[in-house]
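Form 7-S
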Amino acid sequence: QVQLVESGGGSVEPGGSLTLSCAASGFAFRRYAMTWVRQAPGKGLERISTISGGGTVGYKSSVKGRFTISRDNGRDTVTLQMKYLKPEDTGVYYCGKCSEELVTCGEIEKRGRGTQVTVSS
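Output:
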């Protein structure tokens, strides 16, 4: 079955960096877009960044220029590099499998269990 396992979260000070990774299994990874979504404390899920099967990327405006998404179709992994982190980036970050190959993503068919990111001084 589809499995997504995130890693790399932690606590950093404002301005710091973190890299999140997601290991995928159980499906034809290269055929699907992958996305990172975030849930801030007390708020709903928001889509942060998406990468198509072929590598086209998209970002939420608030993270553009600070976050970089990438994927390795040979290792079935997707990575989110986060720089210049802000307190408002705090939340649980989930890796998601999209329902389509395009960067538009469609629906998120499956999420991992998430990894906590805390940005605080």
